[in-house]
Structures
1.
Amino acid sequence: MTQTLTIPRPDDWHLHLRDGAMLAGIAPESARHFARAIIMPNLVPPVVTGADAAAYHGRIRAVTGAGFTPLMTLYLTEATDPADLVAAHAQGIITAVKLYPAGATTNSASGVRDFDRMRPVFEAMAEAGIPLLCHGEVTDPEIDIFDREAVFIDRVLDPIRRRTPALRVVMEHITTADAVAYVHSQPENLGATITTHHLVINRNHILVGGIKPHYYCLPVAKRETHRQALLSAATSGDARFFLGTDSAPHTDDAKESACGCAGCFTATNTMSILAQVFDDAGALDKLEGFASRNGPGFYRLPVNEGTLTLEKTDTPVIYPAKIETGAGPVTVFDPGFPLYWRVL
Ligand code: DOR
Ligand code: ZN
């Protein structure tokens, strides 16, 4: 008997769509399965004002059509005007605000260096109920790259939470047991996204047997015990953990380089991978919460009315190895195991 699973249409609570030819090439990969996505603002130059976000929204919709809803974010800088941000939220232009520590990742140079300076912005956001989405890594060169998330929680996030307890915060793309524990320790206004790839790979996948640039992303995958903690959180049914793929396309020449870019491109096969991972964990019944219900719950949005059906097949589903875009080819994330779940 064929096994199927029908869930409300999922959303992606953390997505990079880029711009121009790359946007045109890869946005359909997300729009095919997802109804909505939180769109990252780290373009060059970044999306810093309500006007920038409105214009970018238009460019995305021109590619995807109205069947896909981009939920826009602003890129927080030390020059961000709290009034512009609150106005953009009140007008429905933006859903959230993204915090990049300066230098933490791709196009984060305009990010925040002095977190104390952001206090008036955080207070205005708390007052208006605007979520702060954190790229949770410190950039101090003395901190080992594998410790940067845990140190961010202690040195940056926890002090912000203590000073502005009403601020709604999403810890983006968590990669450690420390982050899972921190979510558990906090009240309901703290949530966390988990990517598809961090449920699949640990740091050995990147480094053992030759360096695998398509498994390199930030925050970098940690040791296996951390992956297990993420898997437990994602499959637990706890409503504060939800899907944010962080699907982040770079062309192959930018990835397969002496100084390769960070980012895993998972938009194409995410739902198949997740179904496989949840099935293998004996938690298929928890996929609906993780991909379709917990995110809207945190963001106070309705669950999508449409549905998505997955079917378990006898022969593995084959996805394209690359998506050809006008900017160049983008390699699709290879989970390294067969996928028996296909999206109908
Ligand atoms: O791996 C990543 N890629 N992590 C990020 O935080 C940014 C993203 C990108 O924009 O390429
Ligand atoms: Zn990201």
2.
Amino acid sequence: VIRCRAAVAWAVGKPLSVEEVEVAPPKAGEVRVKIVATGICRTDDHILEGGFPDVEFPVIPGHEGAGIVESVGEGVTSVKPGDKVIPLCIPQCKECTFCLNPESNYCLKAHLSEPQNLLPDKTSRFTCKGKQIHHFLWVSTFAEYTVIPEYAIAKIDAAAPLDKVCLLGCGFSTGYGAAINTAKVKPGSTCAVFGLGGVGLSVVMGCKAAGASRIIAIDINKDKFAKAKELGATDCISPHDFKKPIQEVLTEMTGHGVDYSFEVIGHADTMTAALASCNMNTGVCVMVGVVASGSVISVDPMLLLCGRTWKGTLLGGWKARESIPKLVSSYLEKKFNSDLLITHTLPFAKVNEGFELLRAGK
Ligand code: NAD
Ligand code: ZN
């Protein structure tokens, strides 16, 4: 058993509490990882706010980390102690019918099919003050050591800087892949990205890499525009600057709507606005933002009847275990610069300050 620090969410609506926890050794098929760095994704904040009733408290959140294998349980063959790894919030078991389908990146062991509040044997490896603490998506990267099933771990290049490539565990890969894999943005096309957080800015990078000729970035926080431009946005607009709905503004700007639109906020109203912003016949709208569970979106069916496509994406469509290591290699070959997404670097004890910066739009 390892004693170390972890940020525990004891109850909905409470700040994280950095505590000493006990982390049990990995059982068969599991890997214990020393987490070196973790990002903060808005999804973690949705969890703290209680947006997902199926996440059980107390819990150690965090799902965008990178670390080093400390020890492995019986039967683990794909990683060994000392390997650099990225924990995967969407596993890839390589055995289920979804994993065997080349078109799918959703593994049937993922949380929408099977709760990941406990490890697959339905027990926890975390305790704190004598209480069992839940895992989050099996990765719980807000802990100095965490235990993860082997099929939710990707071994990455030993040269990778963990404090940078941790972003490839969720935010960057999700946004970049939403443009490249899910929308399949074509060269010369026009794109609109709603929401310029870490994930939305990664969509901008993906659209640019795919050769889009016009990328319209939309946010109510204009402080986000400089970075969006640096990453490839050609126009930046705030819905607050217009009297008419943003979808009408975008249709006027482009003639018949954009070729690809992306909602990267997580609100029902911006999801319908994004859908209505793309070309009525050939447009593709990708839903990236996560709405609180139980939310319902009402849309005019005519929006789809004319031919538009409305899609969602999980982790940008990447088959995680095989694709994240390749993305890390592309990072090392400087094919993209996800370092530009890093705004602040804080010591672990200041994790709540990180959330305050996220909520303040900084
Ligand atoms: P973030 O909070 O950093 O960014 C959201 C941005 O949207 C902010 O810049 C905010 O100012 C802007 N915004 C808010 N309301 C707006 C409005 N009405 N119009 C225009 N802009 C508005 O969040 P993030 O970490 O970038 O995550 C974005 C979303 O993606 C979240 O909902 C998150 O849960 C989701 N997400 C989904 C996946 C996936 O696999 N599908 C993965 C990671 C994150
Ligand atoms: Zn995330």
